[in-house]
Amino acid sequence: MTKDIQWPDEPCKKCGFSDSWEVRRCINLGGHETYPFCCTECGERTQHFVFKKVAKAAQKKGLVIRDIPPAYNKKRPRCEVCGADGAERHHWAPYALFGSDADHWPQSFLCPSCHRRWHDVVTPAISAQRGLG
User: Which of 4, 34, 48, 104 lies 20 to 30 A from 60 at CA?
Assistant: First the structure.
C-alpha cells in the first residue's frame, strides 16, 4: 500500500520512540500543501517529506493522512524580498545541511516564488533531492 514511501528508519529525535511514523498533511505559511512524517507517539514533525503525488496516491490506496492545523491563524507574513502576501519561513541554514541546529540560525519570510528562486540558485541539489524545486 505504501511501498513508494520511504519511511524514516531512525527514532524520533524528541521522544526516542521508533518504528511508528505517520504522514500528515500541512498547509505551510506560503499556502502550500506539504506531507511531513510525524511521530505517532509525541506528534513531532520531521524535516523529511513525502512528495505530494506519492502521498495522494497512497491515500487513495487507504493510507490515512490527518491534517496538521495551519501554521497561521490571522494574516500571513509578507515576503521580505518582494513584499508579496503569503510568505513562508525560510531558514538561511538549510535543515538538510544543519539539522535541528538550523533553528539557531537567522530566518526570514519569503513568498513561494522568492523561496523557490533562492533554493534553485543556492541549494539546487537539495531542492531537487527533496522535491522543492
Answer: 48
- 48: Cβ contacts below 8 Å, ≥ 6 apart: 8, 36, 37
Q: What three-state secondary structure class fits 88?
A: strand
Q: How many residues does the chain have?
A: 133
The DSSP element (H or E) to which 125 belongs, if any, is: helix 124-130
Query: Could you give the residue ranges of the DSSP H alpha helices within the chain?
Result: 52-60, 95-98, 112-122, 124-130
Cβ-contact 122, 90 below 8 angstroms: no
Instruction: Report how far residue 124's alpha carbon sits from residue 121's, in angstroms, rounded to the nearest whole number.
Output: 6
Instruction: Output the nine-digit C-alpha cell for 86.
Output: 503569503
Determine the pLDDT at residue 131.
46
**Domain limits of the chain?**
1-73, 88-130
Using the structure block, give the residue that is written with the C-alpha cell 524535516.
Answer: 47
- Low pLDDT (below 70) residues in the chain: 1-3, 29-30, 70-75, 127-133
Angle at 109 between CA 106 and CA 111, to 5 degrees: 145
Beta bridge partner(s), residue 49: 36
